[in-house]
Amino acid sequence: LPWNCVFFTGLYLLGYWVVFARRWPRGAVDRFKAASCCMSILHGTSTSIYMLNLFYTDKQQDGGGENSSTMKFWLASRLGAANTRFEEAIMEYSTAYFLVDLVHYLLFVPNQPLFVLHHVFTSSYMLSCRFYTGHGAFSTIILFVVGESTSFLQNVWTISLLTHSAKLFNLLNVPFLIMFSIFPGVLTPWATWQLCLYFLFSREASAVVPFPLAHYWMWSVFMGISGSLYWVSTHWTQSALAVARNPVFHARTSTLRC
């Protein structure tokens, strides 16, 4: 975990001192935000690919699950299984990113409580899963597959907004908001319900994850979903108002904030 923190800190500094050094003066808030995007692009893209591949190969090795009952049995067996070394390595990698990015928000962008709370909930979920229970890593895989799939597009969208790249922003804005609405609005609640069925309503779960902790995990995910829906609905509203004022909507004149 410490070396992963060093790695992401290095990425952050690379973005701040090299990638965006000429775009903003030293100390500019947008320069810090763009540096954070450098970390997020690598983390979100790499973890979503790794975890989607892990999810797929694990299911294939277990026989594929042709019907709903087989699928439920497979899912329950994986959720209750002990963490593998690879799963723990991925959790440490992701936790390091969220911790470094949390420090970024606390120091340079403290007026973003949604992101701060999201990072606190996510980090505590993975830390307790990794170092306390030794179980539940597969639940983080499910959440990352649906939660980080929009990461690359979101960060490119954010950078286009920060840099006032009107053409890129206009190209990405609506597709990104639609995609972001689908994942937190549809897929993530469905995945969360599957986790709730196991962690909160099955006897098997209590043997590996204490009920209060499982309740906290699900509550954290629910809060994350609520924050994401609030965030995307706010941006939909602001986009609609901006278009109503000016049909030729440009990032340079946008009131949107990332």
Automatic annotation (TrEMBL):
SMART domains: TLC (SM00724). Its main location: membrane. It is found in: Membrane. One of its GO terms (cellular component) is membrane. Keywords: Membrane, Transmembrane, Transmembrane helix. It comes from the Eukaryota. The chain crosses the membrane at residues 6-24, 136-157, 177-201, 213-232. The keyword Transmembrane helix applies. Residues 29-245 form the TLC domain. It is a multi-pass membrane protein. This is TLC domain-containing protein. It comes from Ceratopteris richardii (Triangle waterfern). The lineage of its organism: Eukaryota, Viridiplantae, Streptophyta, Embryophyta, Tracheophyta.
